[in-house]
Specification:
The structure holds two protein chains of two kinds. By secondary structure, chain A is mainly α. Helix content of chain A is 36%, strand content 0%. Chain A is elongated. The radius of gyration of chain B is 14 Å and the shape is globular. Chain B is of the alpha+beta class. Classes of the chains: A mainly alpha, B alpha+beta.
């Protein structure tokens, strides 16, 4: 029986405006899928500057993964590749 | 034997025969020390994101090769001393993909437009 109730909890209305108070945590979370992992994902490489520029702020800082929703593994790779591109003066 | 990629940045005010000399110099170094060159790419004159040693632009040469540790040391020795180079970078790879060329494609697309 307990499991059934859990399922119901997950199926709550997913509109964030339905919250009772400001401090209540919202049940609905927007989809967080890593854009760099999975099938036919783009290659993270220091030559692929078009891709790397998406994960850098206006002042050339590396964006945190909590904003870009990149996975841990790929974020580590991103930082190393961005630093390589900066050494070569490409970014 | 491992796969490596090596990129050089030469100064902007170098003449074209000198550029070819530099390119030949490093291919010779790789060949002499029992390395195998897979591919050489010339990215041409690119502008930097920031100034490097008071230069705004530089010639890029990109090598893809298979070699032992000794060749890397030899390349590093030579490129540190070389006055006509601004920077260099070697990266180790498990597999080299020789098909995608990130810098040549752009140029060809722009010319078509």
């Amino acid at each position: 029986m307990k499991r059934k109730s859990n399922k119901k909890f997950n199926k709550r209305p997913q509109n964030p405006l339905n919250k009772l108070s400001l401090f209540q945590k919202s049940d609905s979370r927007f989809s967080k899928k890593c854009p760099l992992s999975g099938k036919d994902a783009p290659v993270v490489d220091y030559k692929n500057i078009k891709l790397l520029k998406r994960y850098v702020s206006d002042t050339d800082k590396i964006m945190p993964s909590r904003i870009t929703s990149v996975s841990q593994n790929k974020q580590r790779k991103l930082t190393s590749e961005i630093k390589k591109a900066k050494i070569l003066g490409l970014m | 034997m491992n796969f490596y990629e090596h990129t050089l940045i030469a100064k902007q005010d170098i003449s074209t025969p000198e550029l070819e000399k530099i390119e030949k110099k490093y291919t010779d170094i790789i060949n002499k020390t029992d390395g195998k060159i897979v591919k050489v790419e010339k990215w041409g004159l690119l502008s930097f994101a920031k100034k490097i040693k008071a230069y705004n632009k530089g010639f890029y040469i990109h090598y893809k090769f298979e070699a032992e540790r000794e060749t890397l040391e030899e390349i590093k020795k030579n490129s540190v001393i070389d006055n006509s180079l601004l920077r260099h970078l070697t990266v180790k790879y498990k597999k080299l993909d020789t098909e995608t060329e990130y810098f040549n494609e752009k140029d060809s697309n722009e010319k078509k437009k």
